[in-house]
UniProtKB/TrEMBL annotation:
Residues 1-23 are annotated as: Disordered. InterPro entries: CheY-like_superfamily, NreC/VraR/RcsB-like_REC, Sig_transdc_resp-reg_C-effctor, Sig_transdc_resp-reg_receiver, Tscrpt_reg_LuxR_C, WalR-like. Keywords: DNA-binding, Phosphoprotein, Transcription, Transcription regulation. The modification 4-aspartylphosphate is found at residue 79. Residues 174-239 form the HTH luxR-type domain. This is Response regulator transcription factor. Residues 26-148 form the Response regulatory domain.
Amino acid sequence: MSDPTEANAEPVEPTAGGGAGERHVRVVLVDDHRMFRTGVQAEIGQTEQTGVEVVGEAADVDQAVTVITATRPEVVLLDVHLPGGGGVEVLRRCAALMSDAEQPVRFLALSVSDAAEDVIGVIRGGARGYVTKTITGTDLVNSIFRVQEGDAVFSPRLAGFVLDAFASTDAPPVDEDLDRLTQREREVLRLIARGYAYKEIAKQLFISVKTVESHVSAVLRKLQLSNRHELTRWATARRLV
């Protein structure tokens, strides 16, 4: 759920000392689930112990760009699936901040998804790393500081996706049909293709059945398909299942 106050965050100056052995990093949390943001804040946001100072939060793409621009954090924890175009859209709109030589904003994707196309998409967009939400609080703090220092950080299983995508000389071309879909539509597409019922998808993604139906209708329209059976064949042919 969006919070109208989140986009009004004011810049926060770094605190003296920084805690955690003088380490200090300013972080913005971007995730469309308030309870998850609250949990992350409680886990890593005790600045005196962790050195992590959470200076802003956002629940969708527009809020994220506004808060990141206002606070200029050193690291952004970025969910892949967001209302308004997903994490890739946030990266696109923050490209100038990432390339700032004096005060770069670096992005670490933090997502429930471990799908190869999600990992590769945000890394191509400029993120410095990708970890899943199964990560421990201690490992997340360490990953944040590594990204702040310019390192690339990945959950072990995900590193292979990136190596394969960027090292291969015969990497598959961009799928223009797939690119028409938002990140959330792709997620619904994969679950439909795996045989999930609308109610099961709604429960897994924490959205309503009506929202699932809307996403399915949008996917069918964009891909010019007639029903879920054609959609399943389409997804299977592209190895998205």
